[in-house]
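Deliverable D2.4 — example input (structure tokens):
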């Protein structure tokens, strides 16, 4: 089992609020107002911290609670820009925003690859995974390296190796790849293929999701109370934060503590 010495969880204290300015959203049930790309959020303070972070949901900004940059924000800020801020002007802001979005894609793929490296059962493919991790990490060496790659083509680079991880670690359960399971009541999902599936508002209370492939599954509003995801594959902080759970929900250890909004 190989360790990947890369931070893949967001550390806002070392970022300059990139997600609060280098993105856009429209007023909806998840966002209380409209915001254009490049316009700082009205709640972003001069120190790059959110003024309402502790009450995002009650302030109509639940969409922010389900966001995670996979550590790209602090890496771009600290490694590529030496702690500089987009507030210095367009000469810094424009390339910094472009690098941030490319870096997010790279770090998300590193999240998946790193999980394969952590799985003992995936031993036969770990050399390949390590090579992919090194290749992805090399893209973060400079802005020039990031801009020279087609980030939209990167998922196809890692997918075959991730498929091998699933074959070695999980599988054997129901096949629901890209299925519409929104609002469904589901319980027997051990080893299920749920890649790209829509589980919007699904009732997964008490569901056995061990070894299930959840890569790209939409878990927004899914009820995970009592569900067992301890060995589920490719679960991300974003997915978990967008779902509903409680103290009885069992999550993969790499995700750390449950989301704050779960209580």
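Example output (designed residues):
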């Amino acid at each position: 089992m190989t360790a990947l010495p890369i931070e893949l969880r967001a550390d806002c204290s070392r970022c300059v609020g990139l997600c609060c300015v280098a993105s856009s959203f429209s007023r909806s049930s998840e966002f209380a107002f409209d915001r254009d790309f490049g316009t700082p959020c009205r709640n972003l303070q001069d120190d790059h911290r959110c003024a309402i972070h502790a009450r995002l949901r009650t302030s109509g900004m639940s969409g922010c609670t389900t966001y995670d940059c996979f550590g790209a924000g602090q890496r771009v800020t600290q490694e590529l820009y030496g702690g500089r801020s987009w507030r210095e002007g367009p000469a810094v802001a424009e390339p910094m925003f472009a690098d941030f979005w490319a870096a997010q894609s790279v770090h998300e793929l590193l999240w998946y690859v790193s999980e394969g490296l952590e799985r003992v059962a995936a031993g036969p493919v770990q050399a390949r995974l390590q090579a992919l991790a090194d290749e992805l990490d090399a893209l973060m060496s400079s802005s020039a390296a990031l801009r020279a790659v087609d980030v939209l083509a990167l998922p196809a680079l890692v997918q075959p190796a991730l498929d091998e991880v699933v074959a070695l670690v999980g599988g054997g359960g129901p096949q629901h790849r890209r299925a519409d399971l929104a609002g469904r009541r589901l319980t027997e999902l051990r080893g299920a293929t749920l890649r790209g599936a829509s589980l919007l508002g699904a009732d997964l209370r008490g569901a056995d999701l061990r070894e299930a492939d959840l890569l790209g599954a939409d878990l927004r509003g899914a009820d995970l109370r009592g569900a067992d995801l301890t060995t589920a594959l490719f679960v991300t902080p974003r997915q978990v934060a967008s779902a509903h759970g409680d103290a009885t929900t069992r999550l993969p250890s790499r995700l750390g503590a449950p989301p704050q909004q779960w209580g």
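The chain has a mean pLDDT of 94.
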